[in-house]
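Data availability (excerpt). The following record was deposited with the supplementary files.
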Amino acid sequence: MNRIQCLSCGHQALAFDNFMDLSVEFPKKAVRITGNIDLSECLQKFIEVEKMIDCGYKCEGCKKPVNVEKDLTIYRFPKVLLIHLKRFYHSAMRKEKLNTTLVFPTKLDMSKYAPHSSKSIIKFLIFSRSSNKSEG
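Predicted structure:
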């Protein structure tokens, strides 16, 4: 569920998008470390609130360009959830692949990433993962 909230009048615009997979980014700290990052940290980054300042968004409530907060949460899960990891970091000067190791649990509780879901417990069993790490 996409939610955009006006920081002037508080009006909220909601949009529901169907999905088959989640594309999640690594948290910024993954750029500076060579250790491990837990999958839950990537999922937490996916749902974090983003402030959009001077973005030109026109509020439907107060009818003027405003600053907003935007967030994504999951409303309804597919039967099979595919998680795509964005392993590239984009800086002002270049793009580089992160070599941080991602730790996967064997069972994944997705409840906290779906606060508006009608189901209180949402668990997935991780049974497969794919890696395209090149051997060199």
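Summary of structural features: The first strand starts at residue 2 and ends at 6.
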